[in-house]
Amino acid sequence: MTLTTDHSKAELESEGLSFGPATGEESRATRHASFDVAQHPVPTGREEEWRFAPLRDLLPLFQAEETTVSEEHLSYDVDEVEGVRAGQLGSGEGPRDSVLVPEDLVAARTAELTANALHLTAQRNVEVDQPTVVEIGGHDASVVAHGAIVLETEESSSATFVLNHTGSARYAQNVEMVLGANSRMTVISLQDWDDDAVHVATHVASIGRDATLKHIVVTLGGKAVRVNATSRFTAPGGEVEQIGLYFADDGQHLEHRLFVDHAAPKCTSNVTYKGALQGKGARSVWVGDVLIRKVAEGTETYEVNRNLVLTEGARADSVPNLEIETGEIEGAGHAAATGRFDDEQLFYLRARGIPEIEARRLVVRGFFAELIQKIDVPDIREHLTASIETELARSMN
After folding, report:
1. Could you tell me the pTM of the whole model?
2. Domain SUF system FeS cluster assembly SufBD core: where (predicted)?
């Protein structure tokens, strides 16, 4: 079964529709945010933002008290490159805490309990060709670890940052992205954890005038992984492309929540997330919120989520939302679909002598190929291709 929704500018205008929160639901424009941990109650699962989450797995992150986490539990290794300055920022030391104001308990605790944030800055007017890679290694899932990272591209600079998460951990993370005017930033976050890892991350970007952000999230490992990604336009002319790829196995819960806040005129956003699921209890959640504020005339935005269910017992939830406060836009739309293998594609391939197992592999490869090709780092493209082949071998051999 395939479910699809799609709304174009023409449909909005002809029907006089404004897509916003249903009666009684909270607008993203007014959602509560605070650094005060006491202002964020422990979720019960009845809240809209937590209704899909595996709260039992996440409970240690809600209850975490201040602890001393050493490199024996979680380690950072920064592969520094020329043109990128590395340092640390204490709590409230700008630009830390200027972009991210916690909207949930995990983010608030992380802000409170992380003494120093890793700060990586692409310097003004410098185009950095090589990616800056941060290896984040988990070594002990019995202790809750917290971390904060601030990524910055100063005016007219460009850089690529890779956050590679591996090993075993219970890890709460805040990532702030600060884009200066006319700068370009690419952030690639790889969640390639061991099977017992629990990871909740909050990514928030502030996009300056004529700045461009490419934000890529790839989630393959971990028992329970939840990534909240927010992009906010602060001046005209900004562009955001958000790309996501995930593959959920038996017993995995992979959740991605996105929010694009069009708070400035003449900005563009495009969101494409694709996921595959296999095995009993495999679960994915994708929620995409787009808010076009009254001042955001000339906005162009589109978001799409596609899910491919490979076996019985897997479940994918997909929730796109548009909230529009002005009719003076270039275009706004969304689409979501969840389905099984395309029988026509399989028939076409098998009719040409390709065995069924190989035909299924080809369909899945084609499903992800578009997104993999958008990743500009060759080593990561090769790694993802190999990882997908490994995942497919589990269910198709």
Report:
1. 0.89
2. 142-367
